[in-house]
Amino acid sequence: MGIDRQLGTREYCLSVFHVALLLFFGKQALAQIRYSIPEEVKEGTVVGNVAKDLGLDITLLTDRRFRVVSGSKENFFEVNQDNGALYIHKKIDREELCEGSGACLTELKILVENPLEMHYVVVEITDVNDHSPSFPEKEQRFEIGEQTLPGRRFQLHTARDPDAGINSIRTYTLTSNEHFEVDIRQSDEEKMPFLVLKKSLDREQKNKHTLLVTAVDGGKPQRSDTLNVSIIVLDSNDNRPIFNQEIYQIAVKENVPVGTSIFKMNATDADQGTNSEIEYSLGKTLKKKVYDIFELDKLTGEIRVKGVVDFEENDIYKLDVEASDMGTPPLTGECRVIIKIIDINDNPPEIEVTSLSNTVSEDSKPGTVISLLSVTDKDSGINGKIISSITSEVPFELKPSYKENIYSVVTKEFLDREEVSHYEITIKATDCGEPPLSAFKTFSIQISDVNDNSPHFDKNPLHFYLSENNVAGTSIFSVRATDKDANDNAAISYHAVREGRQNDIISFINVNPDNGHITALKSFDFETLKTFQFQVVATDSGTPSLSNNVTVNVFILDQNDNAPVILYPVSSNGSAEGVEEIPRNVNAGHLVTKVRAYDADIGYNGWLLLSLQEVTDHSLFGLDRYTGQIRTLRSFTETDEAEHKLVILVKDNGNVPLSATATVIVKLVEPKEAFA
Description:
Elements: H1 9-25, E1 32-38, E2 46-49, H2 50-54, E3 65-70, E4 77-79, E5 85-88, H3 94-97, E6 105-113, E7 117-126, E8 139-145, E9 153-155, E10 169-174, E11 180-187, E12 190-197, E13 208-217, E14 224-234, E15 242-243, E16 247-253, E17 261-264, E18 267-268, E19 278-282, H4 288-293, E20 294-296, E21 302-305, E22 316-325, E23 332-342, E24 350-356, E25 359-361, E26 369-376, E27 386-390, E28 396-400, E29 406-411, E30 422-431, E31 438-448, E32 456-457, E33 462-467, E34 475-478, E35 481-482, E36 492-496, H5 503-506, E37 509-511, E38 517-520, E39 531-540, E40 547-557, E41 565-568, E42 570-572, E43 575-583, E44 591-594, E45 596-598, E46 609-615, E47 621-623, E48 629-632, E49 643-651, E50 659-669, H6 671-675
Parallel strand pairs: 1-7, 8-14, 16-23, 25-31, 33-40, 43-50
Antiparallel strand pairs: 2-5, 3-6, 4-5, 6-7, 9-12, 10-13, 11-12, 13-14, 15-18, 17-21, 19-22, 20-21, 22-23, 24-26, 26-29, 27-30, 28-29, 30-31, 32-35, 34-38, 36-39, 37-38, 39-40, 41-45, 42-43, 44-48, 46-49, 47-48, 49-50
């Protein structure tokens, strides 16, 4: 290997220097060789070639022998007799062989025989990093108050490492944290670690810190050991109660029963003991209504419903809540609770008629607006969505406006007041809640009249019957027309048509224009005029006016105003008298004479009946009541008187019968006289 090829320049120079000394002092101390090997190398590892380094001819080594005659207490080295190589005979532990961290040198005396020579070999055992640092204890515990100021130092256990030089402990490291750091103080050959507080502790943030201190040597690869450090943080009332949110938002249905718990506050205080005990309260500056509706349990933090919750009155409440601990002095935390009220369908729609024409003309065209209305619902969302309709069967419909929930009521077809003059329109508004609520609004619409109907007579022509001898100037009958229109359009006036052939008759007729009563200006005589005809016109007062006419047929009714008139016997001053002569020898049934009469009246009034009112001998004469014939009932005898008087009554058949009398004198004569 030459003179320690593993050595540095300095060690190489020393070796050369030792060889020179051996040459100077003679053969018995011929040379000193220096080698360097690391500890823990395997047995058999060659340290160096002694023969070659001593300048011996390797080809002649068979005659020479090498022997290690002195060295350390244990013989760790041997020389190969074949090639003069110095090798490891037994594994070397530097820390057992040498104490301390200085250089570990072993001096060997090597005896070379044939010829006999003594040589000195120095072997330096270099350190390898075969030991890890070691703490005397695996755990260390500190108790530090959270009020402790930064800069405070706490001594840590010191680690030990038997390796030397760079392989010994080089530094201490600490797991990354914001509160502590490690400071190393050099004492003689030891490095003493200290734990330094660089940032104040907060027990409420972390009541225990677990750190790992690592002692690291300088070897390659590095070796290390760890120390578990536990830091218990002691409490002080330095934390106010904290809510996990600054703002809480909760939703509550309106009409929630009184006493219902709707939310539970949960503040925490990172302190301990009484420093962490919390009481809750509502803020002192809330609106009065909030205190009337909600209450807060100071111990449990429960918010309960105290009064009626009405979405339509207020849809959101903002509660400021305070949490105070029991420390001295107490600390307080605040938060805000926003309570949103959820609408339920507890309000029916409301219908407001914003404009209404109570009257609409019957000639209005379809689409005419008669009313404007709006529908509202105090509820919101789907509960306030409204569907509106007209429920009644009417010729009107709802037209939605461009703006939601605004409608107009319009005509959807032509109207006819004469058919229906009044409508009750019912509007129904139903929301879309569950269950749905409805509202109804009914208003009346009057259909105003236009003059679209002419006066109408129920019958045409009209037939009237008038008793004769009426009183002139009195109403004899009336005509009446009707008009389906109303008011002026139905106000009818009457007049007679005074044109035509019967104009002379009309001059005796007067028609009352207001009521249609017809007055006869003269008394009619059935025997003179039995019937006549005229026309009456009915005109309304509309604009323009409409009219209609009717034909009136008047029939004069007969009254028993004429007494019978006797034509035979001859009438004189209301009485009639005649003389009849008949032979005495006539037989029974002989026609004596015939009483003739007539009556100007007709019908029953002109129906005449005759009777014998007075007769001399009832056994001699008989009268036919219908024909007026007077006949003998028997033959005359000698004893019968020669002259007989017959009084005949002629009477009509009126309700109040009228009559006349006739006297017939019957004279009996001898046949010859009668013949003459």
